Structures are given as C-alpha cells and as structure tokens.
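Hello forum,

I keep getting stuck at the same step: I have a sequence, I want structure tokens, and every attempt I make locally crashes halfway through. Rather than fight my setup again tonight, could one of you with a working pipeline run this one for me? It's a single chain of 205 residues.
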Amino acid sequence: METQKSVKAIDPGERIQSAALGLFIRKGITGTTTKEIAKKAGVSEGSIYNYFESKGDLAYKLFVRYMDEFRGELQEKASSVTGPAEKLSAAVRAFFGFAEKEPDAYAYIMIGHYTELRKMPDDKKKPRDIFVEIIGEGVREGVFRGMDENMGAAFVIGMITRAILFRTSGMLDTPYGELVEETASSSMRVLGFNNGQHPAGTAER
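Reply #2:
Ran it on my machine without issues. Output:
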C-alpha cells in the first residue's frame, strides 16, 4: 500500500485520473462529481481544470488512454506471430491477459463503450479493428470460412467478454487458463478453422 507521501509525489494529473477511474467504475460517469474526484485525488476541485476541460473531457481522455493501451497490447501480441489463425489465437489470449492484468482499466473500457466510444473519430484504430483485420485476412486466405469480418469480430469479442463477465461475477468457476483455452478454441470453431483446432500455445496469465 502506498504511503501518503508517495501518493502526494505522483503527478497531480495522474492522481486525478486514478481517482476518476475508481469512481467512474464504482458510481458511473454521470454519478460521479468533480468534487468527489478532487477529494479522492487530494487536489483542489479547481485544479482538475488545469488538466481537463470538464468532467466529460476527463472521462473521454481516460477512455481513450485505456483503449489505446488495450489496442496496443492486442496488436503487439498478434504481430508477434504469423498467419491469421495464430494471430487470432494470440489476440484472444491478449484480450484475456489485459482483463486479468488491468481489471480496472478493462472495467472502465466496458463501461465507456456505452458513452465514450461514439465520441472517438471513426478513423482512430480501436481494439475491435485488430480482430476485424485478422479475420478479414483469414477469410481472404481461405483459413476461415467466408463471412463478413465485422460479424466474425462481433462473435469472437462477444464470446470473450461474456466469458470474462461470467467468471468475474461468479457464474463460472472454471480456472482462468482453461477458460482462455476453451474460448480460443471456440473462436476458431465459429470461424470455421481446420476442424476447430486452434494453434498450440500457452494462455496469457
């Protein structure tokens, strides 16, 4: 646990974002006030406006920050292998890995999808685009069955997010590694890859 001194030493902008993240997850963006954020961050309410134009600006920039980190993680893992099937398998594992490693960031991304995602420019690359590109490549190469890549991405991402939700809410007690492997395998089956056999690999833990 951080001492009071170490907390104060952190850049105020970072403290504001950290405080906002926790409150947005717990109370929602609308239900959180700048006064509450300031109190939790240990700064004056007015100082928030030295870094952000408004609470809405803070919420959006925080969403973009974590979306970029998430997308970068997916891109890095997918780019480390070759072939659409291998890339998809790596992206699925990276998705689970991010959710496990950064639970607060992941939770906020899920919350922000309802309010902040629509504010992002259409040409800004998002996590889903990684899956769309991989599936599109696989369809063109005949690795995956002929289907719209956006629909394929919706199926795969839907399976991943529901699996994570069911486990975090206690509706599934499947070991995390096993859940990752089963979801990766199921994703391959949905896309019609080689009798449902996905590339060998170890789940991100």
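The radius of gyration is 19 Å. If your local run keeps crashing, start a new thread with the error log.
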